Amino acid sequence: MNILEIKNLTTELSGDRGIVKAVDNVSLTLKKGEILGLVGESGCGKSMTSMSIMQLLPERQSKISGEIIFDGNNLLDLSKKQMNEIRGNKIAMIFQDVMTSLNPLMTIGRQIMEPMMVHKGMSKAEARTEAIRLLDAVGIPMPEKRVDEYPNSLSGGMRQRVMIAIAISCKPKILIADEPTTALDVTIQAQILELMKKIREENETSIIMISHDLGVISEMCDRAAIMYCGNIVEEGTIDQIFENPVHPYTKGLLKSIPSLDKQVDELYSIPGVVPNLYNLPVGCKFADRCPEACEECSKGRPARFEVEPGHYVSCRGGIVNG
Fold first, then answer.
1. pLDDT value for 318
2. Where are the beta strands (DSSP E) in the chain?
3. Which pTM does this prediction carry?
């Protein structure tokens, strides 16, 4: 059963140089208890997709269209008050920059307590007791002491755990994790990922895992969607994506992963650069960088094909139908 359905989501941002489509006609589904990976290079639209779902973009500089269906409602049709009741309560987010996401002027406990007091109607004493329990649950030692401390007294890994405690405080149905292990050492990364798996198992929480790290995606996710320049170019199960990649961009990403089995003088990188969003090509956005591009690729945007059950790719050349 799908807990979230995104249909033709488009996010336009206005700036000094004009309007760009940061998210371009994206469609995705998320099942109950599933972990979906959203993968791609920096600037491909992953975080913009999550910010659009949460409706956290500035209204004057952004325009969001399409449908985001959750609990039978299109989130884009809800009032600010209705969205505030969902945000942080039924849909929560772990933000990318853990060092600046916590309020340095509020105690850790207060920041965990606040959503429970607002959304669950808990008293201050009840919320404090639950905050201590949550700190313990996410692996922070001496939670009774830490609850009264400020973020600057914690390491990066500890702050990330606090962010997770805040996000799960109201037991959301959906958790969006935007690069949750960035800037953490590998030992702490592993601990954070195990914690997120535990959250999924205990609460049947559906998770959207945003990352450029294919290793994290392969370890954590059930399915993955590959993004390039605001579009989903390939989508499938982890086995389908990693064992039978179809889109040239997906192939390039996988080829660029370092391997202990192969000794190379230079790591592979996808040639060329991402096109300027203010001056996008008429055809496939990846065509200029694609080793398999054909004449058809420059004539129009690629259609979406089902390669095998549940495995989709958007490619116009001879990769799918040739």
1. 47
2. 2-15, 18-31, 35-39, 62-70, 73-74, 91-94, 174-178, 206-211, 223-228, 231-237, 304-308, 311-314
3. 0.92
